């Protein structure tokens, strides 16, 4: 007895979609967000800018800038929070710190501010804070272009 399978209903053809053309998508893995900067969505462009500036600062400082025993890998530490986009990518607003000192100062903001004033001076610290509050937001595309050029990539 030979049996063959038969389809009771015919296969449908896929309808041809007509309408809006496809928009450009972020070039990051599996991200389908709209392109904002250099082939990347705003989230991934911000990440790329952070990576470029962090690498620059860690290369500039060469190690933890805090005196004392060091614990953990070198990290990019901001003097004024990354939340303030006017100074987020300024090399003057950041230093390289080992993970232990970075965590120490994150948990102790008063000691951190005293250390910053001792390191850069009260006037420079006040100017940096004023720039963070009143300065213009920095364009991510400009940051990526400047630090790619500086890195020679």
Write a brief caption for the model.
With 153 residues, this protein is mainly alpha-helical.
In words, what does this structure look like?
The chain is mostly helical and 153 residues long. It is 43% helix and 7% strand. The protein is built from five helices and two strands; from the N terminus they run αββαααα. A two-stranded antiparallel sheet has the order 1-2. The longest helix is centred in the middle third of the chain and has 20 residues, at 42-61. 23% of the residues are buried. The model has no long low-confidence stretch (mean pLDDT 89).
Oligomer category: single chain
Report on the biggest sheet: 2 strands, antiparallel
User: Which blocks of ≥5 consecutive residues have pLDDT under 50?
Assistant: none
The helix content, as a percent range, equals 40-55%
First and last CA, distance: 70 Å
- SS summary, helix count: 5
Shape field: elongated
SS content category: mainly alpha
Q: Output the helix-strand order.
A: HEEHHHH
Instruction: Please count the beta strands (DSSP E, at least 2 residues each).
Output: 2
Our Rg estimate from Cα atoms comes to: 25 Å
Mean pLDDT: 89
The fraction of residues in strands falls at: 5-15%
Strand line-up across the major sheet? 1-2
